[in-house]
Amino acid sequence: MLADDVHEAIKTLIMDHAIEPGARVSIDGLARRLGVSPTPVREALARLESAALVVKEPLRGYRTTPLLDREQLADLYQFRLLIEPWAAARAAERADAAGRERLREEMESCATPSDATYDAYKALTAHDTRFHVLVAELAGSAQVRLAFERTHCHLHIFRLYYDRGVGQQTLEEHRAITDAVLKADPEAAEAAMRTHLETAYYGRLRGVSEEPGG
To answer: What residues form DSSP beta bridges with 24?
Structure first.
């Protein structure tokens, strides 16, 4: 297996909870499971640490991080609601023809997932990240884009919860944002982004974080 394959395989195990949240991660065990040497496993875990999916503990090795709890989820969405509706409005005002074409192409790049596994959902996860980063980029703010990228929020949100329904709904909400940006309508873009984030938090995620063990 190539290094990227090992990284993706371990990430899938974490996202699907085949390695439970908070569990110790055995480098040798993963190497045997994947049929590779320990070296690419160590490299993959270092990359996953940068995305906050694992943490390295002194003298104890790696452990997967816990799922977002209700307080962390609330903080994340408060942050997103501060910057992303503004970014969508600015994107509608500032996007040029090339930027609008990039947004159209991004919306055409992802289909609705057909199964409730990370393997089926990873294309949507990648699209979700690219879409929101692109909106921030079209807003013309490098700081907003970097701040958003550093949260790795999409991995952690999809790790917390995904099912068949969320894929279709997410894409529909992205299309509403895209339509407003393409029409150069900042008020509609801001409102569509706010609706998207509030629907995700209040409609799909807050209840999950409040379940026992959440």
So the answer is: 63
Rounded to whole angstroms, the Cα distance separating 120 from 130 reads 17
Q: Euclidean distance between the first and final Cα of the chain, in Å? A: 35
- List 63's β-bridge partners, or say none: 24, 55
Give the contacts of 8 (CB within 8 A, at least 6 positions apart).
122
HSE (side-chain half, CA atoms, 13 Å) at 193:
28
pTM: 0.82
* pLDDT, tens digit (0-9, with 9 covering 90-100), for 19-28: 999 999 999 9
Closest of 30, 10, 7, 24 to residue 63, by C-alpha: 24
* Count of alpha carbons within 13 angstroms of residue 52, beta-carbon side: 13
Task: Calculate Rg over the CA atoms of the chain.
Answer: 18
* 6, 17, 122, 178 from 148: Cα distances, Å: 26, 25, 19, 19
Dihedral sign for Cα 68, 70, 71, 74, please. positive
